[in-house]
Amino acid sequence: MKKIIYISVILVLGILINYDAYSIPAFARQYSLSCKTCHAPAPKLKPYGEEFAANGFQLKDIEAPRYFQETGDDKLSLMRSLPVAIRLDVGASYNTYNNKSGDFSSPYIIKLLSGGAISKDISYYFYFFFSERGEIAGIEDAYIMFNDLFDIDLDLYLGQFQICDPLFKRELRLTFEDYEIYRTKIGLNNANLTYDRGALVTLGLETGTDIMLEIVNGNGIHAADDNKVFDNDKNKNIFVRASQEITDFLRVGAFGYFGRQDLNNELNKSTAKFNLFGPDFTIKYKDIAELNCQYVLRNDEDVLLDEQSAPSKKLETQGGFAELIITPRGDETGPYGVLLYNTISSDIKELDKSTFTIHLGHAIKRNLRFYLEGTYNDLKKDDDYFRINLGLMSGF
Predict the structure, then answer these.
(1) SS3 per-residue string spanning 116-137
(2) N or C: which end of the chain has fewer CB within 10 A?
(3) Strands, DSSP E only, in 248-395?
(4) In the chain, alpha helices (H)
(5) Per-residue pLDDT tens over the stretch 272-307
(6) Domains in the chain and their CATH numbers?
């Protein structure tokens, strides 16, 4: 099976190369635009790129030339060509937690992406990880989007996506280091702020207010069981979010995520109850600097911590991150830098951590950048460590 998938990668790359425009991503190819129209630097989105994605991967002010195939059937919407792109990340690292060793992590990511308008105001998007950390990871983001329902700024997404997407998108960060609080799980409860299956509704108001509602299974994106059912209990989790543009340089928001999860271990059964709340904000200075901050407070009850434990009562976990992005040349290619601070403090002491990351990069092309990143991880124990990453990110 792995051989078949790797052969498929080679075939796709061959098709893109023969297309004679393989050096730019699918949407830039489709609209004959530079990558800097939406990204600065890739994969970070500019406001125009965010608007493009929210509009179902269509530009309101530009028509894609010959987008649909003329078939003589007005009831058939068929794209003239399938929009496809590849992301390839390679690198090397040195760390002090594994006997002070170096490591070639190449390739770290090979990702196939596709998305576009199926018909007017109905779009799709997905990507497939041919390789992530040396394994075939499969499909993560995958959804159908209905844009501008009832002729207002009301959108509906159906499929699988990251619960934190209305907050800060993990897939678009510039650093190798992650937003750790989004990934945090408590015991056997699979609920966190990363991938899940469900529905997302977004509403944009003329006041600059965005309101989002998610209803999800709550157990991640694991495979279906023998009865073709993805959810492992009858419960559904709810995520709500509001964000307000205060000025051109300040946005504030807040979210709440709550639900239940039926759990089992060798000794006990339990219905874990949890809730997550928190504010966030973004401060921007022109196209040169951007500060993103997130705080999360999580409460869990009756959660099973492992295969042997009894239900735990009222566990609290809190944390967040602050991210400063500096792009001295705005959306032009060139040097950039990121400072990222992560912190987690929990009643489960094994989860406690605090990391500080310095990321320096240089975009030599719109879709090609090198970076050097150092992360100090203070685990609030005696086994803190330091990691250095040297990497290259490309999209074509």
Answers:
(1) EEEECCEEEEEEEEEEECCECC
(2) N
(3) 250-264, 269-285, 289-301, 315-326, 334-346, 353-365, 368-378, 385-395
(4) 2-18, 26-31, 47-54, 180-183
(5) 999 999 999 999 998 899 999 999 999 999 999 998
(6) 2-395 (2.40.160.10)
